[in-house]
């Protein structure tokens, strides 16, 4: 069963629901067709989605290859690329990211005044890394319950639980399975059932922000 806190109760987006503008940062394998397809799902619901390419056109066949490239570029530089990319868009966006992309998404949500909400997929960074969680900014965190990257390696699950415990409007959803990038339909890790449920929850969230 998914773990969550403070569940939302509204329906999915309807024609009367306000549409959100979202900046969505890709994961360490790059701006893959699966990331683009996820963004298109949100666009079909009427939302505006921006997908900055922090790797300047590069994609990678594995997490390991992508990590090697990210280390070469430098995670600080990738974070700055995300921050610079956001300057082209209004402050009143929903900040979203997949795995590595959570870094710029979370930094923007915590440090750029005006964010409407935050969506973190497959990762969460300790709130103290960027200061405090801003009052009035809702957040959802999604991951698989046995994902080694989320549960074991970086302590993401502890950071997520701390955020949920401290923020006024925060949820953590854990899905059965051990895949990391299960939302990316272009990768072997893709889980259609879990990804479909995640998208439903995301659309419910976006209908409220």
Summarize the topology.
Elements: E1 21-25, H1 33-44, E2 48-50, H2 63-73, H3 75-86, E3 94-98, H4 102-111, E4 117-121, E5 139-144, H5 148-153, H6 156-166, E6 170-175, H7 192-206
Parallel strand pairs: 1-2, 1-3, 3-4, 4-5, 5-6
Description:
The chain is an alpha/beta fold. It contains seven helices and six strands. The protein has a six-stranded parallel β-sheet, sandwiched between helices. α3 (75-86) crosses α4 (102-111). The protein is globular, with a radius of gyration of 15 Å.
Features:
single chain; 209 residues; alpha/beta; six-stranded parallel beta sheet; 7 helices; 6 strands; 37% helix; disordered N terminus
- According to DSSP, the number of beta strands is 6
Envelope shape: globular
Mean pLDDT: 91
Sketch the topology as an H/E string, one letter per element.
Answer: EHEHHEHEEHHEH
Kindly, what is the distance between the CA atoms of the first and last residues, rounded to a whole number of angstroms? 25 Å
Quick synopsis:
The chain is of the alpha/beta class. 37% of the residues lie in helices and 14% in strands.
């Amino acid at each position: 069963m998914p773990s969550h806190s403070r569940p939302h109760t509204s329906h999915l987006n309807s024609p009367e629901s306000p549409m959100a503008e979202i900046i969505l940062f890709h994961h360490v394998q790059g701006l893959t067709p699966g990331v683009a397809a996820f963004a298109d799902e949100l666009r079909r619901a009427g939302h505006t989605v921006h997908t900055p390419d922090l790797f300047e056109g590069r994609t990678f066949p594995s997490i390991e290859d992508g990590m090697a490239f990210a280390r070469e570029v430098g995670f600080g530089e990738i974070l700055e690329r995300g921050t610079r990319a956001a300057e082209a868009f209004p402050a009143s966006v929903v900040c979203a990211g997949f795995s590595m992309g959570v870094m710029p998404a979370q930094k923007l949500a915590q440090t750029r005044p005006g964010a409407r909400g935050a969506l973190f997929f497959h990762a969460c960074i300790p709130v103290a890394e960027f200061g405090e969680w801003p009052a009035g900014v809702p957040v959802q965190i999604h991951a698989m319950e046995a994902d080694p990257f989320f549960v074991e390696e970086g302590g993401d699950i502890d950071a997520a639980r701390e955020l949920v415990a401290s923020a006024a409007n925060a949820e953590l959803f854990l899905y059965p399975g051990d895949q990391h990038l299960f939302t990316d339909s272009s990768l072997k890790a893709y889980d259609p059932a879990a990804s479909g449920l995640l998208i439903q929850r995301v659309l419910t969230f976006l209908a409220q922000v």
